[in-house]
Structure formats: structure tokens, C-alpha cells
Amino acid sequence: MVVRLVLASLLFGFLPVALAQDTCASVGGTATIAQWSEPGNLNPLIFPTTYDTNVQELVFARLIRPTADLTFEPDLAESWTVSDDARTLTFTLREGLTFHDGAPVTAQDVAFTFTSMADPAYDGGRFAEISILVGAEAYREGTADAVEGIVVVDDRTISFTTTEPFAPFLPVIGGIFILPEHVYGAVPIGNWQEDASNRNPVGSGAFVFDEYRPGEFVSVSAFEGYWEGRPCLDRLIVRFGDQNTLLAALLAGEIDAAPVPIDGATSVANAAGLDLLVIDTLNFQYIGTNLRGPLLGDAAVREAIAHAVNRQAIVTGLLQGYGGLIDTVFPTNHWSYPPDVAPIAYDPAAAAEILEAAGWTLQGGVRVKDGQELSLRLFVPTGNLVRERTAPLIQANLRQIGIAVEIQTMDFPTLVTYLLPREADGTPRAVTAEDFDLFLLGFGIERDPNEYLSYLVETDMPPNGYNFIGVAEAEIAALMREGRVTLDQDARTEIYREVGRQMRDLLAWVPLYQAQDLYGANERLVGFGPDVRGINVDVARWSLR
């Protein structure tokens, strides 16, 4: 038995680094890994979640990819250059790249991918990432025939030009998988989510998609034409299911690697032939609020909720110490986290006083104001057992101060229908106060704090983005936009730390805790080692003993 603590340094930079060409410990065989929920989309441009991305990373490739310290190294692109005015990035693709169906990967496929995100019919939630490109807004509004800032120089060369210097441009590029135009261009962009291609992806990554069996698994096989060399494994299966079922399968040797619920940590650590990996992550859990209604639109209610929830009890009891508290929306181990942020103290007496001062009086055990009860629905997605178990604790904590909470449990795709609602004909619509009150979710930085832009600015409320909570603070929006164009790292750090301070005061998201991730890995699986990049680190080099 081995317990490994994996720590990640966060040294952000923008220089390409040399690829390490590893050799396979063995070639062949099938490995099985697991996750706690099945993917909703296998088209990486359609509202990607972690569960989606875990599968998409196997099938698709990017121009560049992150390293362990979150700098970037070549992937499909062998090199890139930056113009003197820091506005144009030019990428050169490797020679001989092909998609899984044998078609060549060209700069035109890259242009198609990025242009699609600005298409007027695109409703996949990622336009904000590339809106900085010259001409992106005009193309989206239908006043231009192309995105001016995307230029195909030749089959292997493409350039991107932004309206102004854009600090997180490499992280944006590094987060977008390249789609084959001949496959996805044959489907109207507005139909992507419903089209069969959404469950039958074609990419140029290390593995070729084989099968998606709903409720059971996704299967992929080694891509013989992968630019980095054929993957060591013949086949990789991604199973999904509830935590206890997958833990039992891991302990029984049916699964080679799987996330481990807190309650299963001791069992895995003591099991012969299994390693327990403890991963510091850039993710945190929070209570999301709907700011549009008269209840949660009241800042006093949100402040009272924050002080009433015993977050330390969650960390000590449910997490069993595998994690810590967090007081704003940026992870504590990221440079954007403000060390001077005001801590959120557990103080139910103060929470009750806040509500009293705001006019919420107790009547029969429930707070009432202007004839309206302070009664809220808490939506809880399944798939994360610790998160599910926090719900009744939150319910009990809030009951103590006179807030009635009804827990509604659902799978993640169902929760999305409330946060990103659609009309009966399937078209996205704006969120209303009636769609939801509170929800539990996790979030974190994958590449750069600019990823929060679509969640925190008014112009990106659904159907145009991810601001489903309804943040409409002009100063926060201004800071987020300033952070995009500020190249000096010290200045960027202070900008995002100020966003963190203001989001702490706003409490549109009530931060709960930052858990460490636990994984169990069978000793026969060589090379498996998740880090801040996710679960599929160096997946092409995984092999079996």
C-alpha cells in the first residue's frame, strides 16, 4: 500500500517547453477507469463539464496543452510566435496530422473550430472566451461574413489577432479542442447538441471513440496515427456510476483507477495492490444563489446564510480533514486568491441578528417579511457523495436561524435545465426567479481567472453565457474585463484579488470548502497520476504491468 500526496506549484508562463517522449512500460491491454457521473456532451464546444471533458480529452487534441505548472507545451501545433504588439499569435501545425477518420488536420479545421464559437446560431456557452478576437462580435451579430481576427495563412499556419493585448490568450487557446470541419461543419451549429455527432465524436487525440453505452461506460481505442506515437494501451474504458458501486468495483479489481469517496479512503489505503492518491486541486464547493428574486436578492439573506452554515464541521466531519475552508470564489492555492479576504465566521447568532435588522422576523419558526416566508429550494446534483451529504447539514443550520429549506436531489444534466433553461422548442431563454433558489456545485480554475468572466458579467447571463446566478455588479464586470488586457502579472494579481474581495462581500456564491481529490489506482496501471490538470495526465503513456 502506498499513499502519495501530489502537490502542484502554480508558476504561470507563456513559453513553449520541449516535449518529453516517454516509452511504454508495455504495449497492449485494456484499462478501466471510472467517474461518478456520465458525460452530457461529447462535443467539447457544448457546455463542457468536468465529466464531459474527462472523456473529450481522450478523443480530441488542442493546439497547445498545459504542463504540470500550468505553462504550455505544443500539442497539434509544433510552435507559435507572438507579435511585437502582443496582439497576434501565429501557430504552426505539425506535419502529417490526421483525424481519426484519416482526413488531414489543417489550419482550416482550426479556423472552423474558433469561428463556430462566434456563429450567430452557436449556443454552447463559450463565446466569451473568444469574443476578444477582432471581428468576433460583428460575426456573431451577423454583420460580417467571417471573424477578421482569424486568418488561415496556409494549411499548416493560422493566426489569431485580438482587439487589444489579451493576457489569458494562451490559456484560452489551450482549452479549446480542435474539431474536424468535414464532420461538424455538416451539421447546423444550432443543432449540435441534439445531433448524433454529440455522442459519436471524431477528433485527433490519443484515442478513437468506439462506443457510448448510456448509464454504463464510454469505450475508446488507441489511435495508431497519433502524433506523439501510438498509445501504450489498446483500449481504455471510462465507467460511470454511483460512488459506492465504483468503490466496490475498485476494491474487487474490476476497475484500475477511480475517484474515492472520503468514506472509502481507509479501505483503499489498506487494500493490497491499490495506491491511494491525495490530490491538491484548484476546485471548491459553494452554494449558488439566484439573485433575481426578492428573497436571495436581499444581501442580508445571503450574508446570514454564509454565517449560519457550519463549514468547519463539513471539513472535519464529512471531509475527514481532506480539505479546508475557502472564503471567496478563487481557490486558496491560486495566485488570484486574496490573502486578506474577510473570513466568513460561523456565527448563527450574528446571522439571526442580520435577518432581524433587515426586517425578517420569526413567526412560527420561519422568518417572514412583508407577508412572505423565507423558504428556499436547494437543488443538489447527485454524483458527489460529500456534496450530497452537506445538503441536510445546510438545511439544519439554516433552520436554526429561521430559514426553511426544501432539498431537491437530481442528476447533473437535470440541474443544468434549471440553471440554463430552454423554451419548449429547445431554444435557450433567460433565467427567472422561479427557475431555482439555491444549488450546490463545484467550480475552479482550469487555466486562468478569465474563465470566470462568463459567470460574473451581466452581458453573459443565459442564453449568452454562464451567469445564471444573475451577478450584475458593474465594478466586478469592469475588473474582470481589465484583467483580460493587463499583461503585467503583479497588476493582474491585484485585479483578480479585488474581484475575490468583492465577491466575498456580494456572496452570490457562498463558498463552502476546498476538498482534496482522492483516487484509488491499481498497481498494475503504470503512469496514472492526476494533478491540477485533471485525471488524464499523460494518458497516452499509461500502460499495464
In short:
With 545 residues, the chain is of the alpha+beta class. It is 25% helix and 23% strand. It is globular, with a radius of gyration of 23 Å.
Describe the structure.
The protein is α+β, with helices and mostly antiparallel strands and 545 residues long. It has a domain at 283-515: Dipeptide-binding Protein, domain 3 (Roll), CATH 3.10.105. Helices cover 25% and strands 23% of the residues. It is built from 16 helices and 25 strands. The strands form 7 sheets. It has a 6-stranded mixed sheet. A 4-stranded mixed sheet has the order 1-13-23-12. Strands 2-11-10-9 form a 4-stranded mixed sheet, with helices on one face. Strand 5 and strand 6 form a beta hairpin. Helix 15 (474-485) packs antiparallel against helix 16 (489-506). The longest helix is centred in the C-terminal third of the chain and has 18 residues, at 489-506. Mean pLDDT is 92; it is low at 1-21.
